[in-house]
TrEMBL record:
This is Thiamine-phosphate synthase. One of its GO terms (biological process) is thiamine biosynthetic process. Signal peptide: none annotated. It comes from Tolypothrix tenuis PCC 7101. One of its GO terms (molecular function) is magnesium ion binding.
Amino acid sequence: MTITRIVDFPSFDESRNGVVVMVEPHSQSEQMQQVVYRILDANLDRAREGLRIVEEWCRFGLNNAQFTGECKRLRQDIAHWHTAELRAARDTPGDAGTDLTHPHEEKRTSIKSVLQANFCRVQEAMRVLEEYGKLHDPNMGKAFKQMRYQVYTLESNLLGYQRHQLLWRSRLYLVTSPAENLLSTVEAALKGGLTLVQYRDKTADDGVRLEQARKLRQLCHLYGALFIINDRIDLALAVDADGVHLGQQDMPIEIARQLLGSHRIVGRSTTNAEEMQAALAEGADYVGVGPVYETPTKEGKPAAGLQYVSYAAKNCSIPWFAIGGIDANNINDVIDAGAQRVAVVRSLMQAEQPTLVTQYLLSQLNRIKPES
C-alpha cells in the first residue's frame, strides 16, 4: 500500500483506491480560528448561565427590580456577541472538559455560596472572553473588560444589600467572650435562630484570633448568619467577615469604610445621645445602645439605663441594639422601654443551654411589631 502525504498538518485520513490519503480540512489558521471560536462559545454560555442564576435570586429571592434589570442587561450584552458563527464551532461530544468536576461544585451551603460561586464563574468567563476575544474582534476585548468591572460592582452591591437586609431583620446579636467551648456555644445559639455574631477577644494573640475567626465565619455562613469582628479591620479582611464593630476610641467610620468597602457593615458603640448622633452623621450601619445595666464586660463604665433606650427608640433611624447586662430576666423591661433588638454576651456565652435561651430571647423580641 502506498501512502501519499498531502499536507504537513493532517487531521484525518481516508482510503482512495488502495491509497491512504492524509487530508486536512482547513488550513492551519482556519483550524486555530475554530479553536478560538469554541473557547468563545463555551465562555459566552458560561457567563450567561452564571448571570441567570444570580438574576433568579434577585428576582424571586430579593424581589429587587434594579438588580434583576442589571443582570438581564448584562446577559443581553453578552448575547450580542454570541453569533451563529461562534455557535457553529461548538463540539460538545469532542470537548474534553465536559466530564471534569470538583467536589466543591456538588454542594452549596447557602444562598450566599451559590451567588459567590456563580459570580466567580461569570468573572472567570469574562476574563477568558476579554483575552481570546481580541483574536476575534478588537472591540470584543474592550467590551468584556468593561463588563467584567460591571460584574465586580454588581457583586459588591448585591452582597452588601444582602448583608444589610439581614442586619435589619436581625433581632438578637451575640457578642462572644473568650471560652473553651466558643465554637459549640455559638453553633448552639445559631441552631436556636441567631443571625448575628460578633467575635470579641481582646487578650488572645493574633494567631489564635485568626484561627477562631475563620472557624466562626464558616460556622456563621453555614447557618446564614452575619459575622462581625470587634475592632480589628485587618482581621475582618483576612477572614472575609461581613463587617466590623468599632468602639468610641477606634478609628473613624469613614476610614473603616474606605478600607472595608461599601458592601461591608460598620457598627459603633454609643453610650449617650451625643455619641449616637455622631455615629449617625458618620454613616454607621448600626449602633450599640448601652450599657443598659452595669456589666463586667464594661467594667468601670456606668450604666446608661433604660432612659437611653427610650431615647434611641425615638431618635435612631438605623438598626440599634440595646446592650449591657441583658438576660432572660430583664429583657421585657428593655423591650418595654422601646428596644426591638438586643445584644447579649454572658446570657448566651455562659448559658447551660444556649439554643433554648436563644429561642426564648427571640420569642420575646419577635412579639414586637416590626419597624415600618
